[in-house]
Amino acid sequence: MYKVKVFVTLRESVLDPQGTAVKSSLHRMSYNEVDDVRIGKYLELTIEKTEQDLDARVREMCEKLLVNTVIEDYRYEVEEGVPQ
Amino acid sequence: MYKVKVFVTLRESVLDPQGTAVKSSLHRMSYNEVDDVRIGKYLELTIEKTEQDLDARVREMCEKLLVNTVIEDYRYEVEEGVPQ
């Protein structure tokens, strides 16, 4: 089994109203040292070992379903040998 | 400046209906090797250097605002020296 951790973030050029709202809340709570907040998604996929190329399959899943590549970027990390 | 990356995940014991829906979609798209999907949040905070203890401040922000510790776990990583 593999554990694949996918990080999805809004592209730099895309406004993040949710992040802006969180930043304002933090400032109201006196965390004035916070300069910027960006909010994204974090997905953990548990994937069985198969004959197929894991990287190619994960990229396909991301680009077809998990990530909106028009406004989002993604990266992922693979951990091997997660016990079943 | 510091860049703090916060990963928020649902606790193991908490059902993740969004993850279950994504898993079903992946299966319908023939990605049958996907055994489990868990969905969480990923936050990037840009924080100015201050006299205060960064770790203590980040933990406070997480526990007071960013994370619902009843149903969620979190961990974070600090990257130093992000250019202003």
TrEMBL record, chains A, B:
GO-annotated molecular function: ATP binding; phosphoribosylformylglycinamidine synthase activity
Protein localization: Cytoplasm
First-tier enzyme category under EC: ligase
Function, as annotated: Part of the phosphoribosylformylglycinamidine synthase complex involved in the purines biosynthetic pathway. Catalyzes the ATP-dependent conversion of formylglycinamide ribonucleotide (FGAR) and glutamine to yield formylglycinamidine ribonucleotide (FGAM) and glutamate. The FGAM synthase complex is composed of three subunits. PurQ produces an ammonia molecule by converting glutamine to glutamate. PurL transfers the ammonia molecule to FGAR to form FGAM in an ATP-dependent manner.
Entry's Gene Ontology BP terms: 'de novo' IMP biosynthetic process
InterPro entries recorded: PurS (IPR003850), PurS-like_sf (IPR036604)
Gene Ontology annotations for the cellular component aspect, listed alphabetically: cytoplasm
Protein name: Phosphoribosylformylglycinamidine synthase subunit PurS
Matches recorded under Pfam families: PurS (PF02700)
Alphabetized SUPFAM superfamilies for the sequence: PurS-like
UniProt entry tagged with the keyword Ligase: yes
Gene assigned in the entry: purS
Pathway(s) it belongs to: Purine metabolism; IMP biosynthesis via de novo pathway; 5-amino-1-(5-phospho-D-ribosyl)imidazole from N(2)-formyl-N(1)-(5-phospho-D-ribosyl)glycinamide: step 1/2
Reaction(s) the record says it catalyses: N(2)-formyl-N(1)-(5-phospho-beta-D-ribosyl)glycinamide + L-glutamine + ATP + H2O = 2-formamido-N(1)-(5-O-phospho-beta-D-ribosyl)acetamidine + L-glutamate + ADP + phosphate + H(+)
Protein family according to the UniProt entry: Belongs to the PurS family.
Swiss-Prot/TrEMBL keywords: ATP-binding, Cytoplasm, Ligase, Nucleotide-binding, Purine biosynthesis
Major localization listed first in the record, in broad terms: cytoplasm
Enzyme Commission code: 6.3.5.3
Stored HAMAP family: PurS
Assembly mode: Part of the FGAM synthase complex composed of 1 PurL, 1 PurQ and 2 PurS subunits.
